[in-house]
C-alpha cells in the first residue's frame, strides 16, 4: 500500500480547484482522511503554527518540512488536499532553512503526486524556489533533471529559458553551484531535442568551459563531449557540424593559451568516450 496503490486514483476537477470562501467547518472537513488517526494528522499540521516555534522548538517548521514527503506518501495523492495548505505555508516560510528543505525534496513529492497535481500545485512553488537564495536554489538544482523529467514536454521546454540564470549566483566564488549545473546539464541532454540542445544548452556549456575554476571546466568538457555525441546521433547532423566548427573557432583558434588547452581537453574527452567515429573526428 505505498505509492503504487495510489497510481490508479484519478482526481476529479473539484480536488484540484481551490475555494477561498470555505467556512471554518468546510475547512476542517477538507483536512479529514481515513488513512491515519485524524488526531495524529491534526497534530502534524499544527507544526506550522508560529506559536509552536516559540513554545516547543524554534526549528519545528523545518522538521515539518522534512517529514512532508513521507506524510504525503502515507496519505496517498487522493488526500493531498489535506496537506496542500501546509505545504504552501512552509514554501513561503521566512526561514530559508525551511524552504531549502522543501527544495531538496520537491522532486520526490512530484513522484508521489503525479503529473496533474505536480503541474497545478508544485510547479508554482518550484518556480519560486528558482528565484530564491542560493541556499534554496541549490536544492532545486541538484535534482533539476529528476523534477523536469516528470513534466510534460511543453512545460519542460519553458525551463530552457531559465537555465542560464543558474550561471549567476549571490557569491561568484560559489563554484560548486556551477559544477552542479554542468552535471545536471549532462543528464538534461536526454530530455531535449537536438535543436533545443544547440540553441539553449550549447551557450551555457561553452560558458562553463571557460570557467575560472578547474573542477567546473573538467565537468564541462564531459558535457560538451556528450553534447557532440547526442547531436551526432540526431537525424539532423548539421547541428554537430556547426558545434564542431564553433569549438575550433572559439577554442582552437583562441588567442589565450587556456582556450587552446580547453580545445585539447575537449578533443581528449570526445576521443576517450567514443563520441564520434574517427573519420568524423579527423
TrEMBL record:
Q: Is Repeat among the key words of this record?
A: yes
The keyword Metal-binding belongs to this UniProt entry's keyword annotation: no
Q: Which UniProt keywords apply?
A: Repeat
Give the residue ranges for region: Disordered.
1-31
Q: GO CC annotation: what is one?
A: cytoplasm
Q: Which GO terms describe its molecular function?
A: protein phosphatase regulator activity
Family annotation (PANTHER family): SERINE/THREONINE-PROTEIN PHOSPHATASE PP2A 65 KDA REGULATORY SUBUNIT, SERINE_THREONINE-PROTEIN PHOSPHATASE 4 REGULATORY SUBUNIT 1
Return the protein name: PP4R1 phosphatase
State the organism of origin. Answer: Dromas ardeola
